[in-house]
Amino acid sequence: MTNPARTVPGLAAMARQGEKIAMLTCYDASFAALLDRAGVDVMLVGDSLGMVIGGHASTLPVTQDEMVYHTRCVAAGAHAALVVADMSFGSYQASREQAYGNAARLMAAGAKMIKVEGGAWLAPTVEFLVARGIPVCGHLGLQPQSVHRLGGYKAQGKTDASARALHDDARALTAAGIDLLVLEMVPAALAAELTAEITAPTIGIGAGPACSGQVLVLYDMLGIYPGKPARFVRNFLTGGSDVEGAVAAYVKAVKDGSFPGPEHCV
Ligand code: KIV
Q1: Annotated active-site residue in 184, 193, 244, 263
Q2: For a pocket test of ligand 1, which of 92, 143, 217, 266 has the largest count of ligand atoms closer than 8 A to its C-beta?
Q3: CA atoms of 180 and 4, how far apart (whole Å)
Q4: Which end of the chain has less neighbouring CB within 10 Å, N or C?
Q5: Ligand 1 site-directed mutation target among 47, 185, 266, most atoms within 8 Å of CB
Q6: Ligand 1 pocket at CB < 6 A
Q7: pLDDT tens for residues 40-88?
């Protein structure tokens, strides 16, 4: 069942009313139309496209031109879900002006919000974009664009010091005006604290059930990404053959709180 058109304030209202937000990555118009029909609230044009479509080992080789192209494709197929687009590695870190120029290209391609990875250091950039009318989604916990500094795709926030740093980062991004916050691979209890503390809705991936919503990489939840799936992934196509049915089952499981279960927590 297709949703009414989702808006940025509408996501905040869903979170306030306790309705879970179902988000999936999406990279093309055909899947965007299918995800819309299945009731997905938010489509993320993730830079994970570099891995699942481009076959790279990380998201670092993805270019801003590629993000613009895929955002245009998804926006052409999505009519109800809110389209969020990732800023590529190197497209926003150098200066607020660099970030604005590249974010504006994604908005012109059809994004309704952009996503950036980073904590308190990024707050002035977030503030700069928000003041100029660009809604921003933050991304804390495991930040895939920092995979080499982190030494791998590992859970974050497991020590007292790193949990405190995550609280500080979330507060700084909130004060800067984020409208959504992705929490990737952080302990469920910490994600619950952050969700209770900040005003923006949180979207978890490997962050437990207390977040305001959930996101998965589309190819992971359909079981078509080669290699061992991460612990937080559930294959919703298992036992069925209908892709739209699998996506609808994901939306239902997020909304009724049956996904993620304890087995999906890091
Ligand atoms: O690029 C992506 O797919 C993401 C999700 C994992 C949240 O950032």
Answers
A1: 184
A2: 217
A3: 19
A4: N
A5: 47
A6: 25, 44, 46-48, 86, 182, 184, 205, 215, 217
A7: 999 999 999 999 999 999 999 999 999 999 999 999 999 999 999 999 9
Distance, CA of 221 to CA of 130 (rounded, Å): 32
- H/E element holding 82? strand 82-86
Q: Nearest to residue 176, comparing CAs of 136, 212, 133?
A: 136
Whether 193 sits among the annotated catalytic residues: the reply is no
Contact status, residue 211 vs residue 195, Cβ threshold 8 Å: yes
| Dihedral sign (CA 16, 181, 80, 234) | negative
Buried b (16+ CB within 10 A) or exposed e, 6-32: beeeebbebbeeeebbbbbbbbbbebb
Distance 12 CA to ligand 1 centre (A): 20
Query: Which residue has the least CA distance to atom 2 on ligand 1?
Result: 46
Q: What is the pLDDT of residues 82-141, one digit of tens each?
A: 999 999 999 999 999 999 999 999 999 999 999 999 999 999 999 999 999 999 999 999
Q: Which atom of ligand 1 is nearest to the CA of 182?
A: 7
At 232, list the tokens.
């937080």
